[in-house]
Design brief:
Elements (H helix, E strand, L loop, with lengths): L1 H10 L5 H9 L3 H28 L1 E6 L3 E7 L13 H10 L4 E3 L5 E3 L2 E6 L5 E6 L13 H12 L8 H4 L2 E7 L2 E6 L17 H4 L22 E8 L5 E8 L11 E7 L2 H9 L5 E3 L3 H9 L3 E6 L2 E7 L10 H10 L2 H9 L3 E3 L6 H4 L9 H10 L2 E3 L5 E3 L3 E7 L5 E7 L7 E7 L2 H15 L4 E7 L1 H9 L6 E7 L7 H4 L17 H12 L6 H15 L2 E13 L27 E6 H9 L1
Parallel strand pairs: 2-11, 2-12, 20-21, 20-22
Antiparallel strand pairs: 1-24, 3-4, 5-6, 6-8, 7-8, 9-10, 10-11, 12-23, 13-23, 14-22, 14-23, 15-23, 16-17, 18-19
Helix pairs in contact: 10-13, 11-14, 17-18
């Protein structure tokens, strides 16, 4: 082969090195200089063009490297998906354990332990197929038996799991080692949320009795199949955990995470933010809007995601008859300056609500005109006036009309409508800074209509026990956690009007009830958008509450941390659902190689 190559070169009759050197020497000195300059330009240009082409053919790809230390308020107790109740417990549970599905960025879900799943046409059967070669962080194999075990323990009342309610009426059975099937008594459109429940290793928990379940050391030193595994726990002299060091679990179903992680625990937000400011930690979540604004001003990177929480003033028409008048309810709604609340209460970290659902779900805003002017015009058109004392009232109105009497003769009849006002009522809320500020702004807006609002502040526990449960309020400023899927049934169905139901507006509407039931139980998921819009229209037209705003979830992270895409945050721990995509470092590779790598 070598001989053939040199023979081919010989046939080209190229000049030899000696001939090229001789030709160069015969050039004049000026010509030589010009030639050398041209050659340098040619070489540099060729290299520049080659570099530019090479850069266009290359891309940055994430690589392993770097560590993140995050601060959280609280101390872990139950790192167990069946027992976790605190934010710290849920944070570590999300990191250590995997479910059949995992929250995806936005509102959807992605497969985790499950490779795929199917839903029957009647919406009653969900079949999940596990990935192959799943294992626990202790090396043992993960199978369908572990899923069955976890669900059965969640359903067993002896284990007192907060997750029990989610699994009532669900039958689970094993088809084979890789297949599990869930059967429902009636369709439930939000069932997929249940399957994000972290799965426990049966081989470690099987022999632990119900009364010993919360006492097991596995609650503090967990073994899971999630993106991370615990390497060590740092404790103080009293044995209280100060921090957890975690490393990526190499056999995590969705790929090995790229960063190391440490969770450090603090007693309160003040200590947490102090550590963030002095660089002891790199990230902190669920911070207040005021804190986020200060951090952002000092250069801290703040990312945000929608919180599915509805803040509103709920009106108790049974306790204060003035709210029965639809004109009053509409005027109260129009008068609210929601933008001022967003600015002064949420530091612009949130969106106004003009109805029971955000516009992204309901489809469109329900208020076309708003402000004190339109509210006063509406009131005046319907006989309401602000008297000399600045109070809103309606004078008695005398009207005359001609009607036929029993003998068929026309007679004049005089009627007098009842006087109303002056209007005043009590607005109750919790002793929380944001809510107190919002209540004051709302009272100011309604005061401009001549309505006197008396604000009553209660500690959160007292508000729930003494005011909300017995429905002892005229109006209440409160926030409802409606969940990622916006299942409004617990908050607006007429069956939920009395304690322990959450329908604190005591709302009753047959059409709304039907829509709420259909949204929960419809088999045709594609139809939910129109049903949500119809439900929003129905509730907004009735105006049983004055809807105000939806806050954002706020997360302070290092500027160099990439790949952070948050889902809708129902719980702060949801921020970790996509942590396996996070990264600090990148490498430059050809685009074609990056595409091939992502395919595999």
């Amino acid at each position: 082969m070598k001989e053939k190559f040199f023979s081919w070169l010989k046939r080209l009759n190229l000049p030899s090195r000696e001939e090229l050197f001789f030709a160069f020497e015969t050039l004049g000195s000026t010509t030589k200089k010009v030639f050398i300059v041209l050659m340098i330009i040619f070489v540099v240009s060729t290299l520049a063009i080659a570099s530019k082409i090479n850069n266009k053919l290359m891309t940055d790809v994430p690589i392993t490297g770097g560590s993140l230390t995050e601060g959280v308020v609280g101390s872990p107790r139950f790192i167990n998906p069946l027992l976790a109740t605190s934010d710290v417990d849920r944070d570590l549970t999300t990191l250590v354990y995997s479910g059949l599905l995992r929250l995806a960025p936005g509102r959807g879900y992605e497969t985790d332990l499950a490779e795929s799943y199917e839903v029957s046409t009647d919406g009653l059967t969900y079949t999940f197929h596990l990935r192959k070669n799943l294992s626990w962080s202790d090396g043992q194999k993960l199978t369908a038996d572990d899923i069955i075990f976890t669900i059965e323990k969640a359903q067993d009342q002896d284990y007192k799991s907060p997750k029990r309610g989610s699994w009532n009426g669900v039958t689970v059975r094993k088809i084979d080692d890789q297949t599990i099937q869930f059967s429902l008594k009636k369709p439930y459109n939000f069932f997929l949320e249940n399957t994000t429940l972290g799965i426990l290793p049966k081989h470690l928990w099987d022999k632990i009795k119900p009364e010993q379940f919360p006492l097991s050391s596995l609650n503090i030193n967990p073994i899971g199949s999630g993106p991370y595994e615990v390497t060590n726990v740092n404790r103080d002299g009293a044995g209280i955990p100060l921090s957890y060091n975690l490393k990526p679990f190499k056999n995590f179903a969705l790929g090995t995470p790229r960063i190391n992680l440490t969770l450090r625990f603090y007693n309160n937000e003040k200590e947490l933010i102090s550590s963030l400011n002095n660089g002891e930690i790199g990230s902190a979540s669920a911070i207040t809007p005021n804190t986020a604004k200060k951090l952002s001003s000092s250069g801290q990177k703040i990312i945000q995601a929608p919180l599915p929480r509805t803040f509103a003033v709920f009106l108790n028409q049974s306790r204060n008859q003035i709210f029965v008048d639809p004109v009053i309810r509409q005027a109260l709604n129009l008068a609210i300056d929601r933008e001022a609340i967003i600015k002064n209460v949420l530091s612009d970290y949130g969106v106004p609500l003009n109805g029971v659902l955000p516009e992204s779900i309901a489809g469109q805003s329900q208020i076309t005109t708003k402000g004190i002017g339109p509210a006063l015009t509406l009131l005046q058109t319907n006989g309401w006036q602000i008297n000399a004392n600045g109070q809103l009232e309606k004078q008695a109105k005398i009207t005359t009309s001609k009607v036929k009497n029993s003998k068929g003769k026309l007679v004049t009849v005089t009627t007098k409508s009842a006087a109303s006002g002056p209007i005043s009522f009590t607005l109750a809320t919790a002793n929380i800074s944001e809510l107190k500020t919002a209540a004051e702004l709302i009272a100011q807006d309604w005061g401009k209509l001549g309505i006197k609002v008396n604000i009553e502040i209660f500690e959160p526990g007292d508000l729930n026990q003494d005011i909300i449960r017995p429905r002892r309020y005229d109006a209440i400023l409160f926030g409802e956690v409606v969940g990622r899927d916006y299942d409004l049934y617990p908050f607006w169905h007429s069956s939920q009007r009395l304690d322990p139901g959450l329908n604190i507006a005591l709302y009753a509407n047959n059409k709304a009830d039907q829509l709420l039931e259909e949204i929960r139980e419809s088999n045709q998921i594609k139809d939910l958008g129109s049903k949500y819009q119809a439900l929003a229209t129905e509730i907004n037209n009735d105006q049983p509450a004055i809807f105000l705003y939806q806050p954002d979830f706020l997360y302070a992270i290092p500027s160099g941390l990439k790949g952070v895409q948050l889902p809708i945050i129902a719980s702060p721990s949801d921020r970790f659902s996509g942590i396996y995509r996070w990264y600090f470092k990148t490498d430059r590779v050809w685009t074609i190689f990056a595409r091939v790598a992502s395919y595999f």
